[in-house]
Design a protein that fits this description.
Elements: H1 4-18, E1 21-28, E2 32-40, E3 45-54, H2 63-67, H3 70-75, E4 89-93, E5 100-107, H4 111-123, E6 132-137, E7 148-157, H5 158-170, E8 174-178, H6 181-192, E9 200-204, E10 211-216, E11 219-225, H7 231-242, H8 246-255, H9 267-298, E12 306-310, H10 319-327, E13 330-333, H11 355-361, H12 363-366
Parallel strand pairs: 1-4, 4-8, 9-12, 12-13
Antiparallel strand pairs: 1-2, 2-3, 5-7, 6-7, 9-10, 10-11
Helix pairs in contact: 6-11, 7-8, 7-9, 9-10
Amino acid sequence: MIDLSTIQAACLRQFRLRRKVGLIGVDVGSRVIKLAQFTRTSTTSKLTALRVVPVGAGRSLTADLIETGGVGECLDGLSLRHVGFKGRSAACALPTSVAELRSLQLPNASDDELRQMVESEYQSSCPVGDHPVVDLWSPDDSGSAEEMNRVSALAVRQSVAARCADDLLAHRLQCEFLDGVPFAMARAVNLVDDDRTQPVAALDWGHGSPLFTICVGGEPRFTRVLRGCGFADVERAAQKALGTDWLQTARLLSACGISMSRAAHSHVAAETVRRAVNPEVGRLAEQIRRTVSYIDLQHRELVPQRLWIFGGGGTIGGIGEGLSKHLHFDCRPWQLRPSQIDRSLGTLTHMSLFGVAAGLSLLTDQS
């Protein structure tokens, strides 16, 4: 009997090889939805379109809000074609608070048996009548002869994933892939980091709990959620000290930041920002130090040589320099080279916001 699904998959791969435009990467964050798209040339890929869609003041895209149409509400009125996007094929990632990450020790078994064990592990956290959509992978690059196997898993409630896909489709986006943030960051790091043989850290420092990932050769090899040090804590500390709203706070965090040399605003405002933000940065650095110490003990070959910062945290002025002083290795916000950005987009700032969306756009190129 001919396996029609195999033929269909082969034809789809050939189609994507011929297609010049990448997927539309849709990074659904808690506070902001980011979209990005690359276009391939004969020698490289260039970013040709991007867009940021705020969720709205005081709102956060939780699993329950997404399940009741929150993504669709945010995208209402947005015409992607008018802002440079081409095609409809998309890849999407959901917030870490929605796509739950776990690291599990499971008995060596077949892929189907492992999936059943992981689904059973997640089922208890799903409402009655719902079930998890699970992706799992082994971070080890070779098969293990041990009785237990280290498995990383991401799970989303089926009702949440389906509603998100339906909302995207209603806005002319065909969601072909629901991807994990660790994979998207690994591809984005591969795009900007020259040495692809060394372990490199990627930090998705968004509104909720940061996601720390070790990448090697464009793939995630270690992932951990860092609790209690999200970018929301930085925003709250700065807002309380400055008495500003979230938009004013974001501008001051970018302009003043934590570097003594950044004096775009008054000395008083800059000093107030530093005093408010530095303790939060210190708490994050301590979490990263503990994680790297654990990696050094358990997986020394994965100790990172540098760190790329994604998300809102990467927009803080001087954050690369500040974290580098804490961690004693090179840290920098994720940033494309000028040659990787189409001229039509002009000069871009705050590129760290779009790193995950960029990695999603490149999914079929680097898979």
